[in-house]
Design brief:
D-Maltodextrin-Binding Protein, domain 2, 286 residues, alpha/beta, 9 helices, 21% strand
């Protein structure tokens, strides 16, 4: 009988000690299901200023959903983004263009996240509403220098473009100008935001921006008689657009992978992509 009472006392003492520890905030070891879904780290993404607003929005939402994660975004241009991710100085390189030939052996992995339509814009004092492919090519290469040559008023054409590191510049050169380069007389801005400000403030000026940046301070032109809309892009009538890429060096893992997965999720694509002036990848007809 004494032994039985001793055993009961021992069990009671052990149980009391356990309850005391729980009451003091002690807990059992974390099970795998309780492990955070992302590793706590800082992610850096740089490159295309055209894509930057979308990446910034995704970063803000992802950080709000995942405490402890910091995502830093910056511009610099598509080619800068490609070079930076190839060198390992950033985790993600944002680009309007595909990886360049000299970087094809660097192990870069392409993640297409959206479609960016590009617009030809002019200062609001320009009376022309439409330009053809040939007219734009002649303007951007310096062959046409006065608006009267394309049906406008007698006024000098001022070209405001982007630096050579820009994917926007490469897109316009490829699609509109068939690979021809811009005249040296074209001014070069280091960001899309600065370009649109320059066009807005310079009489008789012309430039190009992605649709996400369009403001009423400038006027968007029709291209070959076609006005930009999501429908004219997806049905093939409006050809000035680029796939937006987020490159990683090697297959992404951990938080970088989960961030890219979030951008490609239906939750983000359906809620934010079109709203910010881009087009979801799924909407482009094959």
């Amino acid at each position: 009988m004494f032994k039985t009472k001793s055993k009961l006392a021992l069990v009671s003492t052990t149980l009391a000690a356990f309850l005391f520890l729980v009451g003091c905030g002690q807990s059992a070891p974390t099970t795998p299901s309780q492990t955070p879904t992302v590793d706590k780290k800082t992610i850096s993404a740089a490159g295309s200023t055209a894509l930057q607003p979308l990446v910034k929005l995704a970063a803000d939402e992802f950080m709000a959903k995942n405490a402890g994660v910091q995502i830093n975004t910056s511009g610099g241009g598509s080619f800068t983004g490609l070079n930076n991710v190839a060198s390992g100085s950033v985790d993600i390189g944002n680009s309007d263009v595909v990886v360049t030939d000299e970087l094809k052996d660097k192990g870069l992995v392409d993640h297409q996240v959206a479609i960016a339509p590009f617009l030809i814009i002019v200062n609001n004092d320009v009376t022309v509403d439409n330009l053809t492919k040939d007219q734009l090519t002649d303007i951007f290469t310096g062959k046409i220098t006065n608006w009267k040559e394309v049906g406008g008023k007698d006024a000098k054409i001022s070209i405001i473009g982007r630096a050579k590191s820009s994917g926007s510049r490469a897109t316009i050169s490829k699609i509109v100008m068939d690979g021809k380069d811009f005249t040296d007389a074209a001014a070069a801005q280091d960001s899309t935001g600065n370009l649109i400000t320059g066009v807005a403030q310079t009489s008789g000026s012309i430039g190009y921006v992605d649709a996400a940046y369009l403001k009423d301070t400038v006027k968007a032109l029709k291209y070959n008689g076609v006005e930009y809309s999501v429908e004219t892009v997806t049905n093939g009538q409006y050809p000035i657009y680029a796939f937006e890429h987020m490159y990683t060096k090697g297959e992404p893992t951990g938080t970088v992978k989960q961030f890219l997965d979030y951008i490609m999720s239906s939750e983000f694509q359906e809620k934010n992509v079109e709203k910010t002036g881009f087009i979801p990848i799924s909407k482009l007809k094959k």
